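FW: tagging you since you asked about this chain on Friday. Here's the raw sequence from the shared folder, copied in full. Didn't touch anything.
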Amino acid sequence: MDRATAEFIKTTTGTNFAIEEDEEVIDVCRAWKNSIDQAKSEGLLAGREEGLIAGREEGLFAGKKTALLTSIRNLMKNKGWTAQESMDALMISADEQPQYMSMI
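HL: got it, structure written out here
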């Protein structure tokens, strides 16, 4: 098979498989399997990257909540402030305050 025909097949099918220059027949099933395997690998890699990003965001969010809860408790203990005063001093929004109040 000549190089032009091989490139035409690769372009038309959207596959990226190796073609030996002396190869007379192309195993189309093998070509599609290689293409599917490549797509799976790319999908797994993309999924892992998205999972890492989501995990980092969740970890940062949980860390922030833990730090704020510790700060509220420390202000209450060391300054004698109420939970409300402590949350106001830490500039915790009114929407988030009930959530922290339930954890104290």
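FW: The chain is about 75% helix and 0% strand.
HL: agreed, and Helices lie at 3-13, 28-79, 83-89, 97-103.
FW: great, closing this out.
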